[in-house]
Write a structure and sequence with these properties.
DNA Primase, Chain A, DNA primase DNAg catalytic core, N-terminal domain, Dna Topoisomerase Vi A Subunit, Chain: A, domain 2, six-stranded mixed sheet
Length: about 625
Amino acid sequence: MARILAEDIVTVRERARIDEVISDQVTLKPAGGGSLKGLCPFHDERSPSFHVTPAKGLYHCFGCQAGGDVIDFVMKTDMVTFAEAVEKLAARYGVTLRYAEGGPSRTGQQGVRTRLIEANDLAAQYFASQLDTEAAAPAREFLEQRHLTAGVADFGVGFAPPGWDNVVKRLRAAGFSEQEMITAGLALKGNRGPYDRFRGRLIWPIRDLSGEVVGFGARRIMPDDDGPKYLNTPETPVYHKSQVLYGVDRARKQIARSQQVVVVEGYTDVMACHMAGIDTAVATCGTAFGEDHVKVLRRLLLDQDEHRGEVIFTFDSDEAGRKAALRAFDVDQKFVGQTFVAVTGEGLDPCDLRVASGDEAVRDLIGGRIPLVEFVVRSKIEGFDLDSAEGRTNALRNAAPVIAAIPDRILRSEYVRLLSGWTGMDQALVSDAVKAEAARGRPQQARPTSPAAMPDERDPAGMVERECLKLALQTPDLVHSWFASVEQQSFTVPEYAQVFAAVVAAGGPPAQPDPDWIPAVLQQCPDDAVRTVVRALSVELPRALFGDDHAIVDVRFAENAVSRLLELDASRRLREVKARLQRINPVDSEDEYRRLFADVLALEQYRRELREVLVGGQ
C-alpha cells in the first residue's frame, strides 16, 4: 500500500489549525497564556480539563489523559486511521497529498470512513437535484403546506425518486462497490443485486458537527407507500443515531455564542425554528434524547459548574408530552445548566404552530419556557384530589422522588417550598418526604485523576519538578544554559525522571525556539504513559513558585525554578550525608568521616548560593 509522503504530512500539521478543528466538536474559551480550554469530548466531565495550545499544535485532557496533535484528534473523534485523518485534513485545508508509490487508487488508498462520506455526499447531491422533477410534486406540496420551501436549499432537502436502483446506478458509475453502498446504508442487498433503500420519499441529509453528510432521514409522502412514516439510515461506521443531532452543524456556532439550545422532535420542526429565528434548534434522529446527545450539547454549551447555559425541550401538554418530559428529566441531571420546557398546546409542534400563527408564535413559545423540574413536578401531582387528605398524601409521595433527585441543595429546598404550596401540605412534611427519598442515595461517579498528570499540592518537590519540565518543553530557550547542571537524580517523581531522560535523549532544551522540539522529545519516550505526561506538560500553564496562581515566564522565573529544583536536590543529598556522618565513628573511620564532613560543608555552601538566587528572584 502506498504511503503519504512525510513532508506532506508535515504540511497538513502546519496548515490544519488545531483550535479550529477542535472547535467543530468543543466550545473553547481562553485559559490564559495562549491556551484554550473546554469540556473533554472523550469523557464526561462537569468542569473543563481539556486544554488546547494552538502555538504548539497540541491538546491534552487532565481528566482522562487523552492528548496529541490535530491528526490524533481527528483519528480519535472520527474513529479513522492515520491516513484517513491526514486525507480529511488535507481536503479541508487544500493540501495536495503525494504517495510514496505513485498516486493512490480511488478505492485502495482511501479509508472506509472517507469512502462512506463521499458516497453520502454524492447521494445528497442527487436527492437535492431530484426535488424539482415532476415525480417530486408530492414532496414539494408537503413543503409548501408547511411553509418550508424557502429553507430547502439551506438544509439540502431532496427527493428520492421511485424506482429500485436510481442511487445504486449513480454510485456504481462513480466507482463505488456494492458493499460500500450497503455499508453506507444507501442500498439493501437483494437476490439480483443491491437496490435503493430510499424510494419515493422526501429526504433530509443528516450532517455531523463538521458538516459532513453521515446519513439521511426520509419521510413517507406517497399514498401507496406502506412503509414506516420515517425511515432513517441504519447504524453505519459513520452514522450512530444515539450521537447524531439533526441541524447541529448549522446551530453549533450560535449555540456556543448564545449559550442556549432548543431540542425539538423532528426535521420539519428544526427547519421551522431556524426559519422563525430560533437558530439553536436541533433534533434527535429516530431515537429518544439520551446521554450521548447530552455529551454533544454540553461540549457545545461549555456547560460547567460556573456556567448557566440553557437547554430548552419542546413538548406538547398532552400525555405523550408529559412522558417525553419525564424521559428528559432522567438525563437532565447530566446538565449543569438550566433545563426548560417550552410547552405547546392543542397537539401543535413548532412547525404546525408556525403554519397556524407565524414566526412570532414560535419565538413566543421558546420565550415562554418554564423550568423542566417545575413541569415534571406539576405533572406528578396532576390528577390527584388535592382537596382530600388521601389525595394530597399520594401527590406528595408521587412528586417527592423528583425533588429528591435535584442535585442543587438550594434549588431542592425551593421546590420543597413550592410543592408545599401546590399541595397545601405543611412544608416540614414535604421536607421530610423529600429527605427520605434522598436518603436512599445515588452512586457517585469519581472523577478520574492521575498522579502523573495532576500536580499534588502536598508535594512541593514534585510541583517544582513539574514546573522545570514545563519550562524545558514549552520555553526551552529560557533554560538552555541552566539545564546542563540538572541530573536525573534531581527528580523524585518517577514519571518526571523519565520525561527528563527523554529531554536529555532528544539533545536537551535547544537555545532557540524550535517547532520540532516537543515531537523530538515524544520520540524519545519509552512508552505511551510517558508520552501522555509530556503532552500534559507541554500545554499546562506555568505556575508561580511564590504566591500567584500563574507565572510570568521570563529568564528570572526560569532561573528561580531551576535553582529551586537544584536546592531541593542539594537538601536531600545533605540530609543523606549527615545521616551517614552520624553513623560513623570518627576514631575508627577518620578518613571517611573527614570526607563526609567536607561534603556537608560543600553542600551547605552550594545550597546557600542557590537560596540567594531564589531570594533575589522573589
